[in-house]
Design goal:
11-stranded mixed beta sheet, Peroxisomal Thiolase, Chain A, domain 1, globular, single chain, two-stranded antiparallel sheet, 405 residues, 19% strand, 12 helices, alpha/beta, 15 strands, 31% helix
């Protein structure tokens, strides 16, 4: 377990569009991406807004291809020159499968008489049926593996909103244990009707914007997102002359089993995840300089997460800035952990903490430093990124600037 794991590249898509170039004009300016949704009929829904990216086409496969290629380019990995390394790369992807395509498949099964001959013949499937297996979550890990020429295991995680953070943690373990020298890990999410309507029917979504940790918050908003990270052992990166961006020093995972959808109000589950990450990283709570919170903007999540951070960091929590970038990107579901890992890496490199936007004022019990005044300059060495999910799932990643030794 002596291998050090570093990040050498990443590619990202947010509701602001593809790439990180727009972050300076959006995330760091406290601007949100919420707008009226156009790809879903919201006539009869309570929520009308979300975070749709302007990248086209909006499909899992296109998101995966863009993020994978961008990550390889940043990492300086060439498919031909580094074919041997990529053949041995592990692939781990958090996603729920392409819902839009799955919906079309099931419509064809139940209403074939309403389908045109052209629609029935698409994808070249015998009898005009979509191959449902090609839309399931594991298929996207296979697609990425095929794209880079990997002959190693390809794994998909479907444990809701920690899926892509879990995928990154899994990849970390494979490299740490010497099972591989390189990995592509991340997550994908494209907003689609079934998930949107499910969240809407539960009245979990905001009526205007997302206001994490703020009085007057009314819920979350969901949207598009994707990110893939190149992880390597330090030895692999240095051997090929790469310049690592940061070190992934530890991760933690837990399940509190409190409720199907509600977080544990005590914050105990997330606290265990953070403690595990700190222990595996071998660092003290006092060494964490910034926390990118899960921060959904729902009444229960924000309280539980605040309690969890106080449990872990104690009195030192007063000195740690916390922000929720979901106040600007919205919740990207299975992709959110990976996208927020990229945001955390950007903050680490820029020494600039993105704010918690749309803040209306303090509420009793929500009394941390939520960075509500705008982006904040601070020398950052160690950052933590939290993710939580339905079913009581929690996952924590810790990134650190490279140190000697």
């Amino acid at each position: 377990m002596s291998n050090r794991v570093v990040v050498t590249g990443y590619g990202v898509i947010t509701p602001f569009g593809p790439g990180t170039a727009r972050f300076a004009e959006t995330l760091y300016q406290g601007k949100h991406a919420f707008k009226d949704i156009t790809s879903i009929d919201t006539t009869n829904s309570y929520a009308k807004r979300g975070g749709e990216t302007d990248m086209q086409p909006r499909t899992y496969r296109d998101f995966a291809a863009y993020c994978t290629d961008a990550a390889l380019e940043m990492a300086g990995l060439d498919r031909e020159r580094h074919a041997s390394l990529l053949r041995g790369a592990v692939v781990a992807v958090g996603n729920l499968g392409d819902g839009a395509e799955l919906e079309a498949f099931y419509r064809e099964q139940t209403q074939p008489e309403q389908q045109s001959q052209a629609e029935l013949a698409r994808d070249g499937q015998e009898g005009g049926r979509l191959a449902v297996l090609e839309r399931n979550p594991f298929s996207h890990a296979d697609d990425i593996g095929e794209r880079i020429g990997s002959q190693m295991p390809k794994v998909s995680f479907t444990n809701a909103c920690i899926a892509s953070a879990n995928a990154i943690g899994y990849a970390y373990d494979q490299l740490k244990k010497g099972r591989a020298s390189c990995a592509l890990a991340g997550g994908l999410n494209v907003l689609h009707p079934l998930v949107f309507y499910n969240f809407d029917s539960s009245r979990a979504m905001a009526d205007d914007v997302v206001r994490p940790f703020s009085q007057g918050r009314t819920g979350l908003l969901i949207g598009d997102g994707a990110a893939m990270l190149v992880l390597e052992t330090m030895e692999s990166a240095l051997k090929r002359g790469a310049r690592p961006i940061a070190e992934l020093v530890g991760w933690g995972i837990s399940s509190d089993g409190h409720h199907v959808t509600q977080p544990d109000p005590t914050g105990n589950g997330l606290a265990r995840s953070m403690r595990m990450a700190l222990n595996r990283a071998g660092i003290s709570p006092e060494e964490v300089d910034y926390i990118n919170a899960h921060g959904t903007g729902t009444p229960l999540n924000d309280r539980g997460e605040t309690k969890a951070m106080k449990q872990v960091f104690g009195s030192h929590m007063a000195d740690i800035p916390v922000s929720s970038t979901k106040s600007m990107t919205g919740h990207m579901l299975e992709a959110t952990g990976a996208v927020e890992a990229v945001i955390s890496l950007e903050a680490l490199q820029r020494n600039l903490i993105p704010p918690t936007a749309n803040y209306l004022g303090a509420e009793e019990g929500l009394d941390l430093d939520y960075v509500v005044e705008g982006a904040r300059s601070k020398e950052l060495h160690t950052v933590m990124s939290n993710s939580s999910a339905f079913g009581g799932n929690n996952c924590t990643l810790i990134f650190r600037k490279l140190r000697e030794g």
